[in-house]
Design goal:
Helix content is 30%, strand content 19%. It is an alpha+beta fold and 205 residues long. The strands form two sheets. Strands 3, 4, 5, 6, 7, 8 and 9 form a seven-stranded antiparallel beta sheet that branches. The longest helix has 14 residues. The relative contact order is 0.17.
Length: 205
């Protein structure tokens, strides 16, 4: 099996993360990468292990690498929002023909999804009502096809010392499906104040 270039100590950690639940538990324990050093990083899974922190894209790449090393296909899913909000990236997995998602986030929402969804669209739609701004505007607009990281098998992205924004950009530019027609936007109800309050709950300051 391809080791993706990881050394023995790294492989010892990653091979223990042999289920989506264990990968999610690992991501919950490491801190969020807030980019406080003034840079806009997109670290490789190796650097995530070294720094013990990750933001959503870094967490998704890490989870995909862990799945890959444990014999599963490494798929990402891009959730695209309106221009004045942020996108979110999760790692897809399947169990018994149903889709689930691993997610690294600092917030109480946009989190792990149990493998209960028959289609990727069903899974993407499960994030819609949690995806809103501080003013309550619901902003999720599209989702990508499952994005297979096997296309980046070489060179060694998983152990790179450089930022991996080229992968994030390829994901962003890949085919996406609209969640709702523009004619439906006027009928969207804003999130309730209690939802907005809950959405501001963060784990890492």
């Amino acid at each position: 099996m391809d080791t993706l270039g990881f050394n023995e100590n790294e492989l010892k950690i990653l091979r223990k993360l042999d289920t989506p639940q264990k990968i999610q538990d690992f991501l919950e324990k490491i801190s969020i990468n807030l980019g406080k050093d003034g840079r806009d990083p997109c670290a490789s899974p190796r650097r995530v292990l070294q720094k013990n922190r990750a933001h959503c894209v870094e967490g998704a790449l890490f989870a995909a690498a862990a799945l890959w090393l444990n014999g599963e296909r490494p798929f990402l899913l891009d959730l695209q929002a309106v221009d004045h909000d942020l996108d979110h990236v999760v790692t897809l997995f399947r169990r018994h023909g149903l889709w689930g998602a691993i997610s690294k986030t600092n917030h109480a929402v946009l989190r792990y999804r149990e493998p209960i969804f028959r289609t990727v669209r069903e899974l993407a739609l499960s994030y819609f009502h949690e995806y809103f701004t501080n003013k309550g505007e619901k902003t999720l607009r599209s989702y990508s096809r499952p994005f297979n990281l096997l296309r980046f098998a070489r060179p060694g992205w998983a152990i790179s010392g450089k930022n991996l924004w080229y992968i994030a950009e390829a994901l962003d530019e890949s085919p996406h499906y609209q969640i709702l027609p523009k004619t439906a936007l006027a009928d969207l109800r804003p999130a309730d104040p209690i939802e907005i309050r809950a959405g501001k709950l963060v784990r890492w300051k």
